[in-house]
Amino acid sequence: MKHRSVTIDFQELAYDELEAFERDLVDKARQYTHNAYSPYSRFKVGAAILLDNGEVVCGANQENTAFPSGTCAERSACFSAGARFPGIKFRAIAIAARGTDDLPVDDPCAPCGACRQALLEYEKLAGEPVEVLLVGRDIIYRLPSVQSLLPLAFITF
Ligand code: THU
Question: Is the CB of 115 inside a 6 Å radius of any atom of ligand 1?
């Protein structure tokens, strides 16, 4: 028997410590929380993806009265990016959220499992790591890749 382990290494930063392009992504993710349509959960998530061509594509969670028909902010952003700019690599994504009290969440908001899987596919297509910024009220987590959020992932290519 072999023991194996996976550890993830990430940084905690203040907004002022971010690079300019990261601050822009964080601003846009925070701004897009206001575009959420979430009358059922009242949880509002915004996501902003920087593409290799310099474009930033954003998304917000969109719910539906037939609950499973809704989608998360991250998938709304990444599928929109794939549809608008097919084949263009993803470089980075920022994710921000406001809670049911309508205030920015204290702790950085991490993507759900389905969004990790969806984002990983675009990272694999890019062939390079996609930086992930998880945005809290006062702190931001910077992760080196989507893969780091989804060890032992299912991937067929
Ligand atoms: N949500 C996201 O937009 N992203 C996630 O990664 C987790 C959850 C949304 C889905 C739903 O509209 C609301 O947050 C509550 O789960």
Answer: yes
* Model confidence pLDDT, tens digit, residues 107-155: 999 999 999 999 999 999 999 999 999 999 999 999 999 999 999 999 9
C-alpha of residue 103 to centroid of ligand 1, in Å: 15
Rounded Cα gap, residues 92 and 81, in angstroms: 12
Ligand 1 contacts CB of residue 70 (under 6 A) = yes
Q: Right CATH number for 11-149 from 3.40.50.2300, 3.90.1150.180, 3.40.140.10, 3.10.20.600?
A: 3.40.140.10
Q: What is the reported pTM?
A: 0.97
Beta strands in the chain (DSSP E): 11-13, 44-51, 56-60, 90-98, 131-135, 140-143
Measured from the CA of 45, which atom of ligand 1 is nearest? 3
